[in-house]
Structures are given as structure tokens and as C-alpha cells.
UniProtKB/TrEMBL annotation:
Gene Ontology molecular function: any one: efflux transmembrane transporter activity
CC annotations in GO: cell outer membrane; efflux pump complex
Claim: Transferase is one of the keywords in the record: no
A Pfam short name: OEP
Keywords: Cell outer membrane, Membrane, Transmembrane, Transmembrane beta strand, Transport
Organism lineage: Bacteria, Pseudomonadati, Bacteroidota, Flavobacteriia, Flavobacteriales
InterPro entries on file: OMP_efflux (IPR003423), TolC-like (IPR051906)
Main location: membrane
Protein name: Transporter
Family under the similarity heading: Belongs to the outer membrane factor (OMF) (TC 1.B.17) family.
Keyword Membrane: yes
Length: 435
């Protein structure tokens, strides 16, 4: 009697061969590539740098402005002058030149503390940019991980289809042998061949989906779309997540909620800037100037001056049609809207967290259930194959056992993927997705 390799051992060998044939890209490496190359992340990082450059006392209006200026005017004209005593002086190509240059400093000394509120707002804008970058990173990394684990489950489905095609080929061979010795009809051979063709069609469709999903992951990693790679053979789910811990983390770490809280702080600082208009604005100016002029005719043919200049100024808005009062009311309403937005954001996030956590618990419990179903279906298939070899069961019973096993493997793989998907979403909401 020829030696037969057990199905379970054969599937393991097939998986190892498929994985070792190509370089394996693990999920940590995929995330690392996304952080380095993804276009959305790169754009968000640059936006944060822009916000960081904006945090400056100069942008806030706290520092003086210093300007240098120079003006040089030269003229050559025909000039005629009639003096009080009636004498007339005329000159062609008369020179009339002037040169002025100097340095001027202007400084707002007091503006109702608007400049300080503006500086704090620039800092909050930087924090907002940081929260937005974190949100982009969490979103992108989550998409990369979901696509990656989708590939893992698709690889497992390919392995399942590989195994069913192998079984179908064995069935066709057995049917032909049985037909040759007169123990089976031609119909049994044809049915076996049709089922084999169906399995091979499903395999082609699954390969197409697998190849397209690889392109999608390469796109998310912002690398050559034709880069070939292999993924890990298994999905491991973190089954230790607790709802109370996740709720606490959401309220502290969720970047969307942090962005709403920062926006409220910005609204408060904008109201401070509006209220600053109730106070006077005091400015100081100083400078050093040099002036020189030349003229061919006149009482003064040349003059020059140099020296310091300085002064102070103050302005105060006494009446502006009650616009100040209206602006302050609008500012207060903006703060109220920010508070409402935060309350709504908290409720929406906790609701999403609660429903996702229930889905997570269901998916985790299904992993064990579908795993047991797969083991039962496999045992049933092994028994059915042996019975079919000796011809004591009909073809339809063989096919049913075969499909039950394949469907059980697919459901088990999908249960692990769905549980992993729920885990990723929960960690995204909590702002602690491992990156």
C-alpha cells in the first residue's frame, strides 16, 4: 500500500514553501515604511513644521520692526529765479540733488495684551498641528495594518483553495480509476472534473484579489507598486482589551478629541484679542537720519543734517458703532460652540467605542468557535476521503465534506481577521495604536 501524506502535514508544507519563496514583509516593517514614505503623513509633518516656525514673538507682534531707508534724487533742469529786488537769475543744466538715508525703529509697547494672547494662540496652533499629525498617522497606520492583515487572511484562503484543488485532483484520479475497472459511471468522472474546474476558477479569482490587494498596500507604503512580497502566515489577536481602560484612554489620548479641546482654547484666546481693543495702543518710534541737498541757485546751495529722532503715540477706540460689543458676544458664542463640540465628540467617540468593543468580544469568541468547527470539518473530511477511496460513500457526500472543510477554514480565517480589525479600530480610538 503506497504511503500517503496526511492532509494537515501537506498543508503546512505548502504554506512554508509559499512563504519562503519570497521575502516576508512583517507588519512592523510595513508600518515603518508608511511612516517614512506615505504622502499624507509627509504632508502633515510639513504642516506641523509650518506651525512650529510660526511660534515666534515676532509673529505675535511683540518685537520691534527696524527698517533702513535711502532716497537719492538728482535733477538737471533749466532754472529761472526772480528775486524780490527784481533781479533775474537763469541757469541751464542747474543741479538740484538730495540724499536722505537712515534707520527707523517702530515698537508697539502696549496693545491691551493682544500680542501675548496672539503668541499663546500660535503655541496652540502648533499643538493643534501635532494632534492633526497624530490623527493622520493613526489613520494611515490603521489602514496599512488592515490591508496587511487582509492579505494574511487572503493568503490563508489561497492555502485552503490549494488544498481543496489537491483533494479534487485526487478525486478525479480516483473516479477515473473506478470508471476504468467498472466500479463507477462516466457521470461520476464528469462531476469530479466539473468540481475541480470550479475550484480552479475560485483560485484564479482569489489570486486576482490577492494581487490587487498587494498593489493597494504598496500604494499605502508609497513605494513601487510592482514590489512583490509575502506576508506573515498567521494573525494574532490581542484578547486582553478592557472597555474601562479604553474609555479612559479615549478621553485622554484621542487626537480628534484633543483637537476639539485645543480649538476651544484658541477661541478663548481670540476673545482675549478682541477684548484688547478696549485698551489704548501705545507705540514708540526712533531713528537716525542723514540728509544732504545741493542746488545750483538759491539762497542755500548746499545743506546737510544728521541726528536722532524719537517719539511716542497712543490711540484709543472711543466709539466704533458698537462693533466691539458685538465682536465680544460673537467670541463668547464661539467658545460655547467649542464646548458643545467637545461634548458631542466625547459622546460620539464613546458610543463608537462601545459598539466596536461589543463587536470585538463577539469576534474573539468566534475565533474559538470557528477553530473548533475547522477541526471537526477536517476530521470529517479525512474520514470521508478514506471512505471514498474504498467506494462506500457517494460523490455528493464527498463534495459536501470537502466544501464544509474549505468553508470552515475560510470562516476561521475571517473570524481572526474581523477580530484583528476590531482590535485595530479600538486602539485607533484610544490613540494608542502601536506605531
Amino acid at each position: 500500500m503506497p504511503y500517503r501524506i496526511p492532509l494537515s502535514s501537506l498543508f503546512v508544507v505548502l504554506n512554508i514553501f509559499l512563504i519562503s519563496a519570497q521575502e516576508v514583509l512583517n507588519v512592523d516593517e510595513a508600518v515603518k515604511l508608511a511612516l517614512e514614505n506615505n504622502f499624507q503623513i509627509l504632508t502633515a509633518k510639513n504642516e506641523l513644521k509650518i506651525d512650529e516656525y510660526g511660534v515666534s514673538p515676532g509673529y505675535a507682534g511683540m518685537l520691534p520692526s527696524v527698517q533702513a531707508n535711502v532716497t537719492d534724487n538728482n535733477r538737471r533742469v533749466y532754472l529761472s529765479q526772480t528775486r524780490l529786488d527784481g533781479t533775474v537769475q537763469e541757469q541751464d543744466n542747474a543741479i538740484n540733488n538730495s540724499l536722505n538715508y537712515g534707520v527707523a525703529l517702530d515698537w508697539t509697547l502696549f496693545d491691551g495684551l493682544r500680542m501675548f494672547a496672539n503668541y499663546e494662540q500660535l503655541k496652540e496652533n502648533r499643538k493643534l498641528g501635532d494632534a492633526e499629525l497624530k490623527q493622520v498617522i493613526l489613520s494611515t497606520v490603521g489602514e496599512v495594518m488592515i490591508t496587511y492583515y487582509d492579505l494574511v487572511q487572503q493568503r490563508q484562503q489561497l492555502s485552503a483553495l490549494d488544498s481543496t484543488i489537491l483533494i479534487s485532483k485526487q478525486r478525479v484520479e480516483l473516479a477515473r480509476n473506478r470508471f476504468t475497472i467498472g466500479k463507477a459511471s462516466k457521470l461520476e468522472v464528469l462531476n469530479a472534473q466539473v468540481d475541480l474546474n470550479t475550484d480552479e476558477t475560485l483560485m484564479q479569482r482569489q489570486k486576482e484579489l490577492f494581487a490587487n490587494t498587494k498593489i493597494q498596500l504598496n500604494q499605502q507604503l508609497a513605494r513601487d507598486l510592482t514590489t512583490d512580497f509575502e506576508v506573515a502566515p498567521e494573525i494574532f489577536v490581542d484578547e486582553s482589551l478592557l472597555l474601562d481602560d479604553l474609555q479612559t484612554q479615549v478621553l485622554k489620548e484621542n487626537p480628534q478629541l484633543l483637537a476639539s479641546q485645543i480649538s476651544k482654547r484658541i477661541s478663548e484666546l481670540e476673545l482675549k484679542q478682541i477684548r484688547a481693543a478696549r485698551f489704548p495702543t501705545i507705540t514708540a518710534s526712533t531713528g537716525y537720519n542723514f540728509s544732504e541737498s545741493q542746488s545750483s541757485l538759491g539762497f542755500t546751495t548746499a545743506s546737510n543734517s544728521r541726528g536722532f529722532s524719537y517719539g511716542f503715540g497712543a490711540t484709543l477706540n472711543l466709539f466704533d458703532g458698537f462693533n466691539q460689543h458685538r465682536d465680544e458676544k460673537i467670541g463668547k458664542l464661539e467658545i460655547e460652540n467649542s464646548e458643545v463640540a467637545i461634548a458631542q465628540q466625547e459622546q460620539d467617540l464613546l458610543a463608537t467605542l462601545g459598539t466596536t468593543y461589543q463587536t470585538y468580544l463577539t469576534n474573539v469568541s468566534l475565533i474559538e468557535l470557528e477553530g473548533n468547527n475547522e477541526a471537526i470539518a477536517k476530521e470529517n473530511l479525512d474520514i470521508t476521503v478514506e471512505k471514498y477511496r474504498i467506494g462506500i460513500i457517494p460523490t455528493i457526500e464527498f463534495r459536501t465534506a470537502q466544501l464544509n472543510y474549505i468553508n470552515a477554514k475560510v470562516r476561521f480565517s475571517n473570524a481572526k481577521f474581523q477580530a484583528k480589525l476590531s482590535e485595530i479600530v479600538l486602539k485607533q480610538l484610544a490613540g494608542n495604536l502601536s506605531i
